[in-house]
């Protein structure tokens, strides 16, 4: 008989729960209310592939959230949501215009190109945000058969560099986009954080601001694996349900995806989680602001902090806390806070930062 007395149980944590990472808000676990919703959805049989009562209710709930009857396509991850959304609103000859720091350009392994067949054109921006002026300055070569014609402009809120678009900023972009006959897509993997930072609702940053198509984030807001493509203007999207299947984003037991999104958006859980993550980022930023040798080049607007530290200090800290370099040339790093980041987590990390900075100064 094999001795298993010294083995971990199959459900034992494989990490030190006392040490929290600051590399990504995806490191957080699933919120207890979301877990409870998954368990509650587990009883009995439900029709598969989205014909379940949870998915149908989700469409009603999100229609209330965004202000009118919408189409909702739950999917499994953010890249899948973005690729599906962009495919649904473009023709074969069209391309996407976005920022050079956009997730769809930098961090999706060319999925829009490889899976969606879409050329992604980029504009350099100082703060991760597009403006009408930047878009006008882009040489889109309208009517030039040698150029992949722009069909959609994609923005991210909050952005990949932690900045936040206001409703007025989005509306200004939307007006220009629609004037040119294009579609405005919003990557909202952290839309909850943007809305919480501004103290507005999700509708104000989307429907009311002129967004046509939304990738709605749930995972970073406290879900296990739950995102959705939300079609705010049904005239701009074609074949969404067929493209979802082709993109391998159709969950057979969709009720468990929809139940997570219901837990987040039927009430105010999304806002509570986002407000907390944002507050922890502010606590972290305030804590390093007075440490000699650390520079904050960007304002903390949501749940991300982008300080510049001596490289050796960051490397030593990385041995104890997970995060990574954002800009290798300057030493800038990214610290992310999540719905479950505690004040103690932040203070423990700050103490380590002060210790390493003092050590570096000798």
Describe this structure in words.
This protein has 362 residues and is an alpha/beta fold. The chain is built from 13 helices and twelve strands. It has helices spanning 32-40, 53-66, 78-88, 103-106, 111-114, 132-137, 167-179, 191-198, 240-246, 255-265, 269-289, 311-318, 343-361, and strands at 71-75, 94-99, 119-123, 149-156, 183-188, 213-217, 227-231, 295-296, 304-305, 307-308, 324-327, 332-336. The strands form three sheets. The protein has a seven-stranded mixed sheet with strand order 1-7-6-5-4-2-3, sandwiched between helices. Helix 8 links the parallel strand 5 (183-188) and strand 6. Helix 1 crosses helix 10 (255-265). It is globular, with a radius of gyration of 21 Å. The termini are far apart.
Write the layout of secondary structure elements.
Elements: H1 32-40, H2 53-66, E1 71-75, H3 78-88, E2 94-99, H4 103-106, H5 111-114, E3 119-123, H6 132-137, E4 149-156, H7 167-179, E5 183-188, H8 191-198, E6 213-217, E7 227-231, H9 240-246, H10 255-265, H11 269-289, E8 295-296, E9 304-305, E10 307-308, H12 311-318, E11 324-327, E12 332-336, H13 343-361
Parallel strand pairs: 2-3, 2-4, 4-5, 5-6
Antiparallel strand pairs: 1-7, 6-7, 8-10, 9-12, 11-12
